[in-house]
Amino acid sequence: MRTRAALVKAAAEEFDLAGFAGTSTTKIIKRAGSTMGALYFHFGSKEGVAKAVMAEQAADLPELSGRSGLQRLVDLTLELAQELRSNVLLRAGVRLAVEQGAFGVQDDTAYQLWITRFKEELIVADALGELREGVDPGAFARVLVGAYSGTQLLSRISTGHADLTERITELWQYFLPAVARPEVIGKLEFGTRGPETGT
Amino acid sequence: MRTRAALVKAAAEEFDLAGFAGTSTTKIIKRAGSTMGALYFHFGSKEGVAKAVMAEQAADLPELSGRSGLQRLVDLTLELAQELRSNVLLRAGVRLAVEQGAFGVQDDTAYQLWITRFKEELIVADALGELREGVDPGAFARVLVGAYSGTQLLSRISTGHADLTERITELWQYFLPAVARPEVIGKLEFGTRGPETGT
């Protein structure tokens, strides 16, 4: 399993540098210090490696602070905006998930994982009484994943993700009145996260 | 100029079928009944043709009905959802704009065109008193273009755009409370458009 992890990490670095078309399996195994046999054993093809990078894009994310409910979901979306600038596995996985059509892949696994993750946080927010009546955690989680994906894409193309934190904060301003109770909206913190309280 | 238009149309059809990597300039000129000299004269490269398809993605859209303000913007976004299923130039242009990183292009022209178009409709909506106080037409236009791009991407990967009209209608439900005055929200029509009234 250490070989597999090394191959995913090396593939992410190569895909991040050169995209899917510009990356060869030879470059991946060289960077990983592995063999073509191991790559094909674990993934079957370059497409298979790319699917693994997409599906495991969140594997290197740091733990979130211990805030809960809607604030935790806001924190997560802002952390992702930061991490997209420095976390190679996340950035390569997101990029491949967006560009997958260019290399003949149609795989929504990575999107479904984020929908599930966002939905979990929204279910907690709902249990805490933070959501407006009638808001469906699963439905809004899907809306948020779609909107987030396009927002990061536009931010990458326009500014290389430099304005992404600002764009995600702005996105929340347009979603919150439909989603959160008014007294909750006023208490949500954006920008830099508060001190770690959960560990 | 007829040659140029024929090349853009033929390129859109090829890119729609096979994506950027799967399309050759030879296939494009054959389909267009044109020559390699003409293609390079007008576009310089395959990337140049792809940029033209992206930038001119809206050229074949039908005229909207004569409704105005926020309803017109809603109509436009729902029409785009329909057209993405049948309009090859739009579908290829949107796909290339999303996947452009895979072939080394970074060009936000197509996104900026939609931001401008959406902003124009929002300025009319604002003049009609439909927007909530403080809503910035340019800022929300950019948010909407980002959110729309990702929503159509997720819909394409998950359902081949089959659920896109439903997803865009849902997206509006989550944006409207922040954007439109309450009395306006109740009057907006989704789903099938009303009768043509403007022509």
TrEMBL record, chains A, B:
Residue intervals of the HTH tetR-type domain: 1-61
Record keywords: DNA-binding, Transcription, Transcription regulation
Gene3D superfamilies documented for this protein: Tetracycline Repressor, domain 2 (1.10.357.10)
SUPFAM superfamilies attached to this UniProt entry: Homeodomain-like (SSF46689), Tetracyclin repressor-like, C-terminal domain (SSF48498)
Pfam families named in the record: TetR_C_45, TetR_N
Keyword Ion transport assigned: no
Superkingdom to which the source organism belongs: Bacteria
Record flagged with keyword S-adenosyl-L-methionine: no
InterPro entries assigned to the protein according to its UniProt record, in alphabetical order: ArpA-like (IPR047923), CprB_TetR_C (IPR054126), DNA-bd_HTH_TetR-type_CS (IPR023772), Homeodomain-like_sf (IPR009057), HTH-type_TetR-like_transc_reg (IPR050109), HTH_TetR (IPR001647), Tet_transcr_reg_TetR-rel_C_sf (IPR036271)
Annotated DNA-binding residue span(s): 24-43
Protein name (database record): TetR/AcrR family transcriptional regulator
Organism, as annotated: Streptomyces pyxinicus
